[in-house]
Write a structure and sequence with these properties.
By secondary structure, this protein is of the alpha/beta class. The chain is built from four helices and seven strands. A seven-stranded mixed sheet has the order 2-1-5-4-3-6-7, with helices on one face.
Length: 153
């Protein structure tokens, strides 16, 4: 399902390690109840803030960094950290996605993160998708390897 075109295993591991260091403050221990380290990413399909459909299958072929968030004071800080990591890695085989669950849907998701918002695609989440992952702490960031397995949260 997931493949990393043009990146060695060492390069993929390096990108994950760098991103994990940058984003570490946004990752509480045990952020999920239904997905554990080594588990496959749950299948889902959501719309981005422009109304385009994006599915977990679209994240194949690269490491996936997924930020789960809703409105709140810690969200802007977390999005700034993720934006920095996205900018540093956007030319690599790493996909960044936000999944927003909160009031106001797409319009509210676009406004988060302050000026410019998120530099990466933000999907409008549903209770069902959050339940599939078992999200219990927000904001939180998860890293899935090229095979779609959770490697870090």
């Amino acid at each position: 399902m997931f493949r990393t075109a043009g990146m060695s295993g060492t390069a993929v591991a390096a990108v994950c390690t760098i991103a994990a260091i940058i984003l570490a403050p946004a990752m509480p221990a045990g952020a999920f109840t239904n997905v554990k380290q080594g588990d496959t990413m749950p299948a889902f399909s959501l719309e981005d803030t422009d109304g385009a459909a994006v599915s977990s299958g679209d994240m194949g072929g690269k490491v996936a960094v997924i930020a789960f968030f809703r409105e709140g004071p810690s969200t802007a800080k977390a999005l700034k950290r993720i934006n920095r990591s996205f900018e540093a890695n956007k030319d690599k085989a790493v996909g960044y996605y936000g999944i927003y669950l909160g009031k106001g849907g797409a319009d509210a998701a676009k406004a988060l993160g302050g000026e410019g918002g998120a530099a990466f695609p933000v999907l409008v989440g549903t209770e069902e998708v959050y339940a599939a992952f078992g999200v219990k702490a927000l904001p939180t960031t998860a890293f899935f390897d090229k095979d779609g397995k959770l490697v870090h949260f």
